[in-house]
Amino acid sequence: xxxxxxxxxxxxxxxxxxxxxxxxxxxxxxxxxxxxxxxxxxxxxxxxxxxxxxxxxxxxxxxxxxxxxxxxxxxxxxxxxxxxxxxxxxxxxxxxxxxxxxxxx
Length: 105
Known about the structure:
This protein is an all-alpha fold. It is 86% helix and 0% strand.
């Protein structure tokens, strides 16, 4: 088997999957997105506090996104730390959601 045939087979077998560089770029992009969401959430929270409105809904959204991300990574990569942080984030989101609902009712 020649080099070209081996290369062609490897490329065909990897179709649809990302290589290491693509995975790294994707992960950095998601991390950046979470950081921007956190900053926007902080700005919205401050605005809501100044306006005298409940603010926990904003952080409920942030912790839900972070929790799902961590939970997914924990399950797929078999990392207990990620799994724990995902569960903790989702529990925090649930508490914020309940707090928000009780505040507006």
